[in-house]
Each structure stands twice: as C-alpha cells, then as structure tokens.
Amino acid sequence: MFEERYAALKDSYEQLGLKEGASIDTVKATYRSLALKLHPDKNLANPSSTPQFQALSEAYERVMEHFLGSEINVGGKGSGFGPPNGFYSFGVGGKRGPARPDRPKQPAQSAGR
After folding, report:
1. Is pLDDT above 60 for 88?
2. Model's pTM, two decimal places?
3. Cα–Cα dist 16/59, whole Å
4. Percent composition of the chain: helix, strand, coil (DSSP 3-state, to 5)
5. Where is this region: Disordered (predicted)?
6. Beta strands in the chain, from DSSP E residues, in sequence order
C-alpha cells in the first residue's frame, strides 16, 4: 500500500513538473499557472484539454494531501479550502435584515444638494 501511494505521489509531482520536496508555495504557484494554460475554457479547440486538466487537478490534490495530511480531502466537501459552511448565507445578495432599532432613520437626501 505504501509503495502504491508513494508511486502515485511521485507521478503527481512529475505531472506538475516539480521535483519531490518542492515547497507548498511552489506547488500552488505551479498548479495555478498550469491550470490557466490547460483549462478547457481556454482551449476550446483541444478536445483533450478536459482530461488533461482533470489529471492535473487530481495530481495537485494528491500533493496537497501529502502536505496537509491524508485525513483532509482536498477539494471535497468540508475540505478546509474555500468559504466555511454557511458563509454566503448572512445577507450577501439576499434580503436586508430589519433596521437596527438603536439607530435613528436618516432622511433621504435629494439629488439636488
């Protein structure tokens, strides 16, 4: 099992074009630049760009799991990346909440001032 995981990790570093032992910042920067180059939306004429991009993303996930610990599912639900659960539920783009009773209402300003 260990040999398989090590081989997969080694392959992931190679897919990213990195040497084993690269820093986490180097891994992130390299992935971002490759992802921009290989993204299917930027390569509409290349039908193989989608599988290439998916393989790149999987390689990045494997390397990041190695850095952050195998108990973290990078990119999965509850992975620790991105906004926490409910982050967008506190009024962004939704209805405004009730007016604060401790603030007096401001009169509307006219455009002629």
Report:
1. no
2. 0.57
3. 7
4. 50, 0, 50
5. 90-113
6. none
Q: How far is CA 82 from CA 68, 74, 79, 88, in A?
A: 15, 10, 8, 11
What pLDDT digit, counting tens, does each position of 2-24 carry? 788 888 888 999 999 999 888 89
pLDDT at 86 (0 to 100): 47
Residue 79 has pLDDT above 80, yes or no: no
| Second CATH level (architecture) for the domain 2-71 | Orthogonal Bundle (1.10)
- Torsion sign, CA atoms 10, 73, 16, 42: positive
Which of these, 39, 1, 35, 41, lies nearest to 17 by C-alpha position? 35
Q: Which amino acid is at 54?
A: Q
